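The aim of this short unit is practical: by the end, you should be able to scan a pair of folded records and say something sensible about each. We start with the first protein, listed as its amino acid sequence and then its structure tokens.
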Amino acid sequence: MQLYLGGYLDYYNPERGNWLEVKLSQPSQLGEVLTKLGIPMSEVHLVVLNGKLVDISKAIVSEEDELKLFPAVGGG
């Protein structure tokens, strides 16, 4: 699975890049995958799976997917 970590979420990539390749042996719940990667679900605000906005708590991901995660944006 190709995983894009937007904004400061790239902090959770050991290589500190935005893109991360994640090997999955079978389709998995996104929450489980994020837990294994050490990415807190509370830090993720938007999830785009294969170009479509999805609910983080219901998303199932597989090896062929492209997933983009984005944190909430704040400012003044």
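Turning to the second protein, read its sequence before its tokens, just as you did above.
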Amino acid sequence: MSAFEAGYQGAVTLRLRLPGESLSAREARRAVATWAVTRGIGPDLDDLELVTSELVANAAAHGMGVVTLEAEDSGDVVRIRVTDHGTTGLVPRESNSNDDSGRGLLIVSALSRAWGSAVGDGVTEVWAELLVARR
């Protein structure tokens, strides 16, 4: 029996290229939510949507040019990967109660099973893996 006959679907990936602007975070959030629902992921998509929008917002704010979003479904884990054309390293920073921003990576860290980043060849990549439930 082949893997196809056994019902194995493999990883399914969503890919989007978005402008490097703040509204792209909202578009990415909506796209990932719609994609996740079509894959049977849910019922609670809040963490997945929030991590996606935080990563895209960071790329739009600190990177340059087009932001690329990929979401890969591999069963009980969804991996979100965001790249931009920037060379800014990412480190969660301490913020105080007076800061209007600066908590995005702390949120990503708290909601993700794992996350990380890499910078090289003029590209910054940030990824996060989230455990997901199925309907």
